[in-house]
Design goal:
The chain is of the alpha+beta class. The chain has one domain. Helices cover 32% and strands 21% of the residues. It has a two-stranded parallel ribbon with strand order 1-2. The longest helix has 8 residues. It is elongated and about 40 Å long.
């Protein structure tokens, strides 16, 4: 029996190349089978200038 209610969501966070390219096999594996959660891909692009001027909490 599946639990009622919304499915949990897992966020896979990756930066620019090569890390962004490395998540493709993970996304394919999750898409091939229903693990009971949804997956979103978040691509982070952070320049050196932004990293020096903004605080990330």
């Amino acid at each position: 029996m599946k639990p009622a209610g919304p499915r949990p969501t897992v966020a896979i966070v990756a930066g620019a190349r090569p890390n962004f390219m490395k998540v493709a096999p993970v996304l394919r594996a999750v898409a091939a089978r229903d693990y009971g959660f949804d997956v979103i891909l978040v691509q982070c692009l952070l320049s050196d200038r932004i990293a020096r001027t903004k605080t990330i909490a």
